[in-house]
Amino acid sequence: MTIPYLTVEDPHAAMALYEKALGARKTLIIDGPDDSVLHAEIDINGTRLMLGGVWPGMSEAPTGRSPVNFMLYVESADEALSKAVANGMTLVSEPETMFWGDRIAKANDGHGYEWTFAHEVEKVSAEEVNKRAAEWLASMG
Known about the structure:
This protein is of the alpha/beta class. The protein has two domains: 1-60, Signal recognition particle alu RNA binding heterodimer, srp9/1; 62-141, 2,3-Dihydroxybiphenyl 1,2-Dioxygenase, domain 1 (Roll). Helix content is 26%, strand content 36%. It has a four-stranded mixed sheet with strand order 1-4-3-2, with helices on one face. It is elongated, with a radius of gyration of 17 Å. The model has no long low-confidence stretch (mean pLDDT 94).
């Protein structure tokens, strides 16, 4: 099993945001000194994520946008984006139906991580995805 581990400057704020914006549920919090979080675990749509704060010499939070992104399959990317933005996330991209058959939208959590919300609108064969990808790339110049 692979479990992503996020390092954030303020784990309490991140968990509160993830609860409101993503429907996360806290499953474990190990308190550290001075109201810090040594380790925490949350569940988002049946997927476990671990997170913790910055510990000098051990972990660092992203400065700017992390190269790690998260993709959540949801019932409606449009509704998930609306909820995320209404609860503190920042819009990255409006909902759009993509050539591979998913409708996606993106938001930034302000803790360095980008979240993509997606739902399937069309089943597309591998052959058709490759054809559409080539067309999409050609349209990009």
